[in-house]
Structures are given as structure tokens and as C-alpha cells.
Amino acid sequence: MSEEALSRIAAALERMSPPPAAEPSFTEATAYVWQPDPDRLEPVAEVNRVDLVQLIGIDRARDTLLANTLQFARGHAANNALLWGSRGMGKSSLVKAVHAEAVRQGLPLVLVEIAREDLGSVGRLLAILGRASDRRFVLFSDDLSFSHDDTQYKSLKAVLDGGISGRPANVILYATSNRRHLMPRDMIDNERSTAIHPGEAVEEKVSLSDRFGLWLGFHPCSQDEYLAMVRGYCDAYDLQIPEDRLRAEAIEWQATRGSRSGRVAWQFFTDLAGRSGISV
């Protein structure tokens, strides 16, 4: 085979399997998204988040996660955290808000988001983050859950337990889920009822959530808390509206949605702000 043919083959192979991107210096942004194949960390110029003071009705979870995050960002011991519970109650918003507060205080904390379907590559990501010893990383996985035949949860154990090599000391995991045990309750009950040894049937999967040091529950809000959220958004954006009108419209909005949550409060405020000529 000629040298020219070999060169063409080599060039084609390089195009098919490009070299991995250079590791970031983590100076161009404070948040990144992990993208495997090829492995790279894409910087996020502006994180989509709300201020910590606008997260109303979740005071205990807010204070606990903030304290844990600041401990970690300062180089002290801290726990992995599982934020679980009702939809739209600010789980992912809280993670992004406490990260922003740590950055505001001048702490070297970087937020790295990894999708559930990319957990199989988490070992390679941990290797990259572990080499950046001058930074502390919150590894964030949003809306985490697993089905009965899903094996991605085994990759998650590499973050929580670390295996032989151990999890890098400068990495911590925050995950959000609608499920406390990260898998459907009916699936757990079904596997227990059909197994020869019910106690062992789902222990490996259910015990995954036990590996999180912090469990922070998010529950449906009351009407007063919902209205306080709406009022908080109005105050933050200086939207002037009579209290009785605000209350009536907010209650009507949540009645048409059939639920109350921080997300519903924000959606109502977005509509109200648009009608009032305010950009959010």
C-alpha cells in the first residue's frame, strides 16, 4: 500500500475518532456541562437561575444545603445531597442558587452538570475534575431516576462510594429526583412481592439513596406559601399591583393548573409581568 493511501486512511480515522478536547482551566466560567464522546466540558456563560432570597417556603432545605455547600467550598467536610419530592418546588433552583451564593462570596466553587444518560462516563469526568486541585466542584444531576432494568445507577456509585481509587476530595454530588429511592414505588413493591428473598430483591437499588449524606424533602406548598412566592417575585421586579387583585388572580391561576408550587407561582408571575409590560 502506498504512503499516500496510508495517509488518507490515517486522516479518515482521525476524523472518525477525534482527539479529546483540551481540559479546561476553569477560569472562563463558574459552570460547565459535561458532554461525552468526545469528552469535553462546555462552559455556561450565564446560568439560568433565581436568587436565593426568592426561594420561599423551603427555608430549612435552603439553609441546610447552603451551609453544606459553603463548608465544602471552603475546603471542609461536607455531604453528598439528594433533593427529592414534589415537582416544581425549587429543587434544581436551590442547587443553582447556593452555587451562585458561594461564587458571590469569592469561593472557588464550580458547578458541573451531568445528564443521567451520561453517568456511564462519570469516571472519566471525575479524573478530569480531580486534577483541578485549585477548584471545588459540585457535580449536579437533575431529575435523577432509574427503571428496573437500568444499570446507570451502578455508575453513580463511583461518585458516592468512590470505589478503590476513591472519589476526588474536591468533588461532591448534588442530585434532584421526584422519588426518594430514585426508582418507582410500585416497581420496588413488585420486585419484593415476586422475589424468593424479598429483602434482597431491590436492596442494591434502594440503598443507593442511602449513600447520600443529606436527604432534603420538598413537599407541596400551602396557599399562603404560594401567594408569598408570587408576592416575592413582584417585589423583586418592582411590579406594583393591588394586593386583592394579585391574590384573586394568583388563586384563579393555580386553580386552573390544579396544583400549587414554586413553578406555578413563577409561571403566573411571568404572565402577570408580560401583561404589565415588564421583562423578566
UniProtKB/TrEMBL annotation:
Transmembrane segments: none annotated. It holds the Pfam family DUF815. PANTHER family: SLR0930 PROTEIN. This is Uncharacterized protein.
